[in-house]
Amino acid sequence: MLQGLMNLFSVCWSPFGNEVENHETNGVLGGGGGSGGGSNGGSREGKEGLLWFRDIGKYGSGEFSMAVIQANQVLEDQSQIESGQFGTFVGIYDGHGGPEAARYVCDHLFSHFRAITAESEGAVTAETIQRAFRQTEEGFTALVSELWSTRPNMATVGTCSLVGVIYQQTLYIANLGDSRVVLGKKVGNTGEMAAMQLSTEHNANIEAIRHELKELHPNDPQIVVLKHGVWRVKGIIQVSRSIGDVYMKHARYNREPIKAKFRLPEPMSMPILSANPTIVSHALHPNDSFLIFASDGLWEHLSNEKAVAIVHSHPRSGSAKRLVKAALQEAARKREMRYSDLRKIDKKVRRHFHDDITVIVLFFNHDLISRGAVQDPPVSIRSALEHR
């Protein structure tokens, strides 16, 4: 039966690795030009079927590795690395309901961040990051309003947004939704590496998030609903914070002509979802070795500890791609199928086995960080902008 299913799912797809392209691009995975006009960090791009990657490159405070695997018909993940004299900005945007919100955030969030920090002579604080998120949310809401008569479905598109900013010797993490960043930290001189989750996730499957929602909406017994074993906000969406999803924030968009499955049976008296990120700061320590930023598609299959162990026990080059492949192998194992068969399944159908997955691994050069220096030239990389 499995073989029959595989024959149905496979659509003339060559296995990963039959063709590998390695070529320089202008700072974008998949082509199309970098944002901000910077370089690609001296990295080279590769492609294996639905997988795009940069095995190793340089950014302001060290080296990076980057990879994206597509599962949806249209890739809904976006990501970027921006690095220069101001520091380093990393963003992972995991869209849902379509790619538009993730693309919008990738187009605008860093631009807002740079403009706001310029007003304060380059200083980065939690407030500057908060303002950048707020301006991006306001901009996307305005776009939904502008397109309401022609593209009302834009009101039901949203994105999780995970951002890391390295400024001087401080790391800021800002998050909406359920993407995650994990720190690999050396344990003294033991040679071991500990995994520390730095981001706070906003998913109704987490008990603390359900408690938070119930406190915010004490008069709504249906604020979280268990459907098919999954907790959802209003029985519709898993994440409680995002950019976009304006149908769950503004009553004027929770009506026809959006699809009935998004429309609430009762009037919306206050926003149900929030675009206010949780922001934490972390003083960088010489034992901090690397960061793994990834959309939830990775963490669905790999624990924090497993991901850190994979990065720690292999060469830096190819770290992100290695994590993606480990997640795919686990996804195949869960479905009692061979990894080689999973690789043959085309996009869209592939979504039944795993999500789009984006991974960025940042390795720290503490000599640069302690001296307050950054590597030149500036780096500006966006992944997946042109992927369809």
Automatic annotation (TrEMBL):
Family matches, as InterPro entries: PP2C, PP2C_BS, PPM-type-like_dom_sf, PPM-type_phosphatase-like_dom
Keywords associated with the record: Hydrolase, Magnesium, Manganese, Metal-binding, Protein phosphatase
PROSITE patterns, A to Z: PPM_1 (PS01032), PPM_2 (PS51746)
Biased composition (Gly residues): 28-43
All residue ranges annotated as the PPM-type phosphatase domain in the record: 60-364
Stretch list, region Disordered: 24-43
Cofactor(s) demanded: Mn(2+); Mg(2+)
Assigned EC number: 3.1.3.16
Source organism superkingdom: Eukaryota
Similarity field: Belongs to the PP2C family.
Protein name as it appears in the record: protein-serine/threonine phosphatase
Organism, scientific name: Hibiscus sabdariffa (roselle)
